[in-house]
TrEMBL record:
It comes from Opisthorchis felineus. Keywords: Membrane, Transmembrane, Transmembrane helix. InterPro entries: CWH43_N (IPR019402). This is CWH43-like N-terminal domain-containing protein. Residues 7-228 form the CWH43-like N-terminal domain. The chain crosses the membrane at residues 7-28, 57-77, 89-110, 130-148, 160-178, 198-221.
């Protein structure tokens, strides 16, 4: 006997936790005037107490189930490749995606374990590397779906749109982060960016939101593609010790 569960429940849970963490942290941060209410940095939502603790713990759940969701997608792809007797090149692409999934999870963990107020450079580098890993996953999935998998054109087009959106968001984030730091004499404003540094940081926040929203839609896309699959877990059966006998024999030397 095995217990089966819908595979789509994993990415949907990750998506629900991520959205609730952002909304709850945004509300708390806005009420306490910890960040700009209209254009907040997503990174700013974990700077202060109490929203920082809420965002961090929920983000850890999102990382765990998000990584598992991508891993399940690879298992789904591998199952379909076996049915089609695909060449080894296709399996190599799946293996590359699995490596990128592990890298994405690692950079996410590093991202949320380092406060940008304490070490902004590490936080910034982790953000860039994490979203770069996601973009590489999107590129590999596009190649895999076009060449080997039977995904719909809509799903492939959605990946191309998400790749374009996240790439534009990263360029905006990178450029205006540099401009903002120069405008603020190299210091990192934790609350509202005053004066001439406000607009560069506002555009930088827009770039970050473009990347985050693309990642959320990407998680939703995984749920849609996993909806026809299920996870089967083996049943756990207790051991009946009374039926087990252990025979020990001793021989004289």
């Amino acid at each position: 006997m095995t217990d089966s569960y819908p595979a789509a429940i994993i990415p949907m849970f990750s998506l629900t936790v991520a959205i609730s963490a952002i909304i709850l942290s945004w509300i708390i941060s806005s009420l306490l005037d910890h960040t700009d209410q209209l254009w907040p940095f997503v990174s700013f939502l974990q700077l202060f107490v109490p929203e920082g603790q809420v965002s961090t713990w929920q983000s850890l759940l999102c990382i765990t189930f998000g990584t598992l969701s991508l891993w399940l997608w690879c298992s789904m792809a591998q199952h379909e490749l076996k049915e089609k007797s695909a060449p080894q090149t296709a399996y190599l692409l799946v293996a590359i995606i699995r490596i990128l999934v592990v890298a994405t999870g690692y950079f996410q963990l590093l991202l949320f374990s380092v406060n940008s107020a304490d070490n902004n450079q590490t936080h910034y580098n982790s953000t860039v590397r994490m979203f770069l890993s996601v973009k590489l996953i999107l590129v590999t999935q596009i190649i895999l779906s076009v060449r080997f998998l039977q995904l719909t054109r809509l799903h492939t087009a959605a990946r191309i749109i998400l790749l374009t959106q996240s790439s534009c968001g990263m360029m905006i984030f990178y450029y205006y982060n540099l401009v903002g730091n120069k405008s603020y004499n190299g210091e990192y404003p934790y609350r509202r960016a005053p004066g001439r540094a406000y607009y560069p940081y506002m555009y930088c926040a827009i770039g970050e939101w473009m990347m985050v929203s693309a990642f959320l839609v990407f998680t939703l896309l995984q749920a849609l593609e996993l909806r026809h699959f299920e996870i089967r877990l083996p049943e756990v059966v207790p051991i009946n010790l009374s039926e087990q006998t252990i025979t020990l024999t001793f021989e004289r030397p």
